[in-house]
Structure formats: structure tokens, C-alpha cells
Design brief:
This protein has helices spanning 18-29, 36-49, 60-68, 94-97, 100-110, 113-124, 139-143, 157-170, 177-193, 215-230, and strands at 7-11, 32-35, 72-76, 84-88, 91-92, 132-136, 149-154, 206-209. By secondary structure, the protein is α/β, with parallel strands linked by helices. The chain has a five-stranded parallel beta sheet.
């Protein structure tokens, strides 16, 4: 029975380090991996490819249909710079999905009820033996409220913008730190105030603020929590 398959839910805002943590746990425990935020980015990408407009009253029926029939795969890479390989209809698309524009599109489609409904069963289908690490914004509150371990990663918007800035700078991608901060701040506001599945930690989640932590400190703290709960 799927309800006996363990789930580790890792939630939090954009840039909090969820992807690296989820990829690490997936590798450590040899669990399946779900990046639900990537699903919304993939819906946005598929919608753009179909010529849909996502701003100002998007076509909810068309977006819901895309979400219901999304053909995706995920695989951990163990690369902190690009922790997840992903395909859409058999095509590798992580470079397109990880752009800031794709992140904005994800936030737009995530506010559409038909998209969230269309992705609900797809997300739950990732729960397969021996276990699942689910990375997102509502994994521990909506999709897997019975998860064995719930972790909520957060950090200040300033810290998350600086991390993203350094990541893009390392890749020789020109970007403004101020613009990144504004984009992250605006997305946080949309995610926290949307009517459907707003971003918040589950009541029984372990909350980790990584503002003043490096990734090794975060991984060590997460590992201690998971070991205590799962062994």
C-alpha cells in the first residue's frame, strides 16, 4: 500500500536550498525524487510553447489540460549547481526550466486552481517504493500531509537573492542583484497570499532558517532530523 511508503517533505520559498537538500536525501536513502516546483515551471514552459498567455486571466481550462497530461521525469545529479535532471515529453529541459522567467511563470500558473487540481494525482503517483523525497511549497500541508518527515527551509529574501546572483555570476550570466531581490520578494508575496495552497510551514514541520548557514550546515541539520525520524 502506498500509504506505507515513507515520504520526506521538503518545503520552502524559492532559493532556500530545497533542491540541493532534496537531491541529497534522495541519493542518501535511494528514494524517488519529486520536484513539485519544477512541475509548475514545466506547465508554464509547455503553456508558453503552445502560445498561451499566462498574465491577466489565463485560459484555466487549457492550463488544467496541460497539467493533467504532463509527461515528465526527474533524476538527481549530485551536482549542487544543477541538482536535478528533468525531461518534458522526453526532451531534457532543465536549462529552460531553471531561468528566472520560468520561475515567474511557475508562480503564475500555481495560482490557477485547475493546474493544482491537474497536478495533484501526478504528484501523489511519485510515491513509490522504497520511498519519496518531495520538494515544493505545499508537500507537507496539501499533497502529503501524512509525510513521515516535514522540513521547511527558509532564508531572508536578501540572502536568497545574493545566492542566486552568485550562482548566475559563476555561470557568466549577467543579472542585477536588485532585480533578483525584487523578483524574489514579489514571488514570495504571491506564494504567501494566494487563495489556493498558500506557502506556509506545516504545523509539525521542522523549520530551518538558512540565512546565516552554508549548505554543509544545512545538510547536517537535515540529516540529523531525518535520521531521528526514520533511522
Amino acid at each position: 500500500m502506498t500509504d506505507q511508503i515513507p515520504v520526506i517533505a521538503v518545503d520552502g520559498p524559492s532559493g532556500s536550498g530545497k533542491g540541493v537538500v532534496a537531491s541529497y536525501l534522495s541519493t542518501q536513502y535511494e528514494y524517488h525524487l519529486l520536484d513539485s516546483g519544477a512541475l509548475y515551471r514545466l506547465v508554464g514552459l509547455a503553456a508558453r510553447r503552445q502560445g498561451l498567455v499566462l498574465e491577466n486571466r489565463p485560459d484555466q481550462e487549457a492550463l488544467g489540460d496541460i497539467a493533467q497530461h504532463l509527461d515528465v521525469t526527474f533524476a538527481p545529479t549530485n551536482d549542487p549547481e544543477n541538482p536535478l535532471a528533468m525531461t518534458l515529453n522526453g526532451e531534457r529541459v532543465e536549462s529552460e526550466v531553471r531561468t528566472d522567467e520560468a520561475g515567474v511563470d511557475a508562480s503564475l500558473v500555481a495560482a490557477v486552481p485547475s493546474v493544482r487540481d491537474g497536478l495533484f494525482e501526478l504528484q501523489q503517483s511519485f510515491r513509490q517504493s522504497p520511498g519519496l523525497v518531495a520538494d515544493g511549497r505545499d508537500m507537507g500541508t496539501v499533497i502529503f500531509p501524512e509525510a513521515d518527515v516535514k522540513i521547511f527551509l527558509t532564508a531572508s529574501a536578501e540572502a536568497r537573492a545574493e545566492r542566486r546572483y552568485n550562482q548566475l555570476k559563476h555561470k557568466d550570466i549577467g543579472v542585477s542583484l536588485h532585480d533578483l531581490f525584487q523578483s524574489i520578494h514579489a514571488r514570495d508575496e504571491r506564494d504567501r497570499t494566494r487563495e489556493v495552497s498558500p506557502l506556509r510551514p506545516a504545523d509539525d514541520a521542522f523549520v530551518i532558517d538558512s540565512t546565516d548557514m552554508d549548505i554543509e550546515e544545512v545538510l547536517n541539520q537535515v540529516q540529523a532530523i531525518v535520521t531521528e525520524r526514520l533511522g
